[in-house]
Amino acid sequence: MIRTQIQLPEPLYREVKRVARDQDWSIAEVIRRGAEAVVRSYPATKGSGGLGTRLPTPIRARLRVEDPGLLKVEIRRDEEGVE
To answer: What b/e readout covers 24-39, taking b as 16+ CB neighbours within 10 angstroms?
Structure first.
């Protein structure tokens, strides 16, 4: 793994910490999963190798989950490609 350092706005950091606590994950795991979700959403264009790809501005939305256990199930299903 590569070690890196990032800066987050305070409100986002608090939400990341909350998700980590609620899901019993580390903060690093929350960040990795978020990065994986973004990369899956924006696949590399043919021949670009992913370089030069410009991501759109992030959508300002809040994920509302009533049952965190269900979120874990859905994430696992998504990772396994189950529909």
So the answer is: ebeeeebbeeeeeeee
